[in-house]
Every structure is written in structure tokens, then in C-alpha cells.
Amino acid sequence: MPALTDTFVMSNGLHIPKIGFGTWQIPSGSRAYDATRAALDAGYRHIDTALAYGNEASVGEAVRDSGVPRDEVFITTKLPAEVKTASGARDAFAESSGNLDLGVVDLYLIHAPWPWSDMGSDHRDGNVEVWKVFEELYEAGKTRSIGVSNFAVPDLEHLLGNTDVVPHANQIRWFIGNTQDDTTAFCSGRDILVEGYSPLATGGLLENAEIQEIAARYDKSVAQVAIRYLLEKDVLPLPKSTTPSRIAENADVDFVLTPEDVAALDALQDTTD
Fold first, then answer.
1. Which residue in the list 44, 53, 108, 229 is annotated as catalytic?
2. Does residue 197 carry a catalytic annotation?
3. What is the 3-state composition of the chain as percent helix, strand, coil, each rounded to the nearest 5?
């Protein structure tokens, strides 16, 4: 499937597979291991995890056991959102690296600009402190690229104004009806790749009648149309499932939406919350 083998090119020239397999909320142990193996068996070559997910070790084991050469798998992990000190960042990266046991990390992200328990609070200076550690890790070759997650325009502006390396990626919640236009435009203007997590709105889009109607015209599922929509917008989708058939289906998106259908999807409002 070309969608699984095609890549985006980040600002530093690094190629990243256009579809990633997300592992959020997949418990460690057999469930994370089996889901990751199913994704790799289906042809995914981009796996997204995080220290906060608690499943890095299972993901790493699945990659090692898969038989797929390590240099053909793109691995993303994340610094916990609560960590806003240099020493904390160094310790967390070492912990993630040990958990994964896959050598160099391909993309390392700040999970959020604020702790999850205090969303919206001001940790701009802590993000700068942490980012300088990220720059060190990047320059040392311990991670091949660095980025952020859940950063809005003000968060990005402060970071860019006080550090040297522009983030290579920003992973944000992005789906039909919730396209974060301001943040997406800001990133596009600075060659920051936008990655979209929850491309199905955590299942909230699956019963949408308008998307169902569009999907029927292509003989595709709502999930496939929703994922294809991100690709049409040059946003990297990160679908998640633990069901092998759905894992494969989510990557079977080698079709093109007409401009009229893209416009119809553009016009939809978020009704998932």
C-alpha cells in the first residue's frame, strides 16, 4: 500500500512514513505487543508511543521480534507533559530509551505544553528549558528529530523565540470538524510537520451520516475517509486500534477524495464533544 510506504519529509530532510500507528490507551503486555505486531505485519513502518502510555517496552519488544529491520521502522516517543526541568528531561529520555531498547529514537516530542492535571497553565519557561535538552539530544544523535505535541500558536511562538532548533513536528488532535486551522497554518508556514492524533475523533465520527454518504461513494469506510482526509491536507494521521482487521483497514487509503468531497468535509463542524 503506497500510503504506508509514502513519506513526508521533515525540515531536516528526515523521511517519516505518512501513516503512523498510535498506541495511546493500549495497555502494556500482550495487548500492546500484539497490536504493534499486527500493525507491522500489515505494513505500518511508523509506531507512535510515549513514556506516559506505559507500553514502550511492549512496543519495543514487538518491533524487535517482528523481523522488520530496525532502520525501516520509525519510532516516536514522548517526554511526559509533567516534566519541565532539564534534569527531568534527561532522566525521562534515558528511561524511554531503556524501555524501547531500539537504539536511536526517530522522533522525540514534548507531550504537552502543560501538565495534564493543569491544562492551560503557563510553563513556557519550563518548555524552553526542556527544549534545550532536546537540542542536545538531537545534536548528539540520540534522536533523529525533535518536536512537540498539543502546542498552540502562543506556545510555539515562545519556544521559537527562545531556542535554536525549530520543532520538526507538532502532534495535535486533528480530525474532520476539528482542524485547528490557526495552529496548522502557523506550522505550515514554518515547515513544522503537523501530525494528527485521534483522526476518527476517538470514534466520534463513525456514525456521522454525511461522512457515511461520502464513504459509500468510494466503497470505503468512514474511518478510511477520515484518515484519507488528513492525508489530503498534508497532515500525518495516527490511527489506533487493537483489532488486526481494523488496523489493516485504517491503512487501506490509497484513493483520492474529490475537491467537492474535501470541501464538504471542510464544512462539517465538530459534534463529537
1. 53
2. no
3. 45, 15, 40
